[in-house]
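Below is the record:
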Amino acid sequence: MSETPPGKGASAARAPRRVRADAQRNLKTLLKAALDVFAASGVDAPVREIAEKAGVGVGTLYRHFPQRSDLIVAVFRSGVDCCADAAETLAEEHPPLEALSRWMQHYVDFIATKRGLAAALYSGNPAYDSLPAYFEQRLVPALKSLLDKAGAAGEVRRDVDPFDLLKAVAQLCNSAPGDSEHTRRMVALLIDGLRYGAGKGIERDD
């Protein structure tokens, strides 16, 4: 058996890791590009436009997402994950009420970018059947954690249902599409309203 030339074995061992890292970067870039294109042009935009924006070949896009529905599902789930994960980060960096307020504005951004996906999500295609449950499973606990912290600090009332609040903000966003500043002001007023009754020992039924 011949010996491995010096350094060749280590280089070969590192190669798959580099490939995986490159693939992961390509995936993230594709999802971001698809989100931007969907928001601007709708979900029927040419895949070539998405690939060009991401700086990859069309073949790379199809390797990750053989069907358009695969890409749409991945974009939606990625947005939900980003929004949910932000709750923990904000809770670590800011006081409870500020963390809650900042997260709600982050959620406004998520709703705004989701508009480009609306036509597909509500098309009746069974490929998207799991998405509403995924939305609820990830975002309700994220918001609940922020409400619990703010409630324990006496900064907001403690009988707020997180799912109701998510729906209320989504309705505010949809009532004024394209006017993000108006939506942000309305959401800020909504959060301010949660302070009514704060610190009075009202418990939420979970």
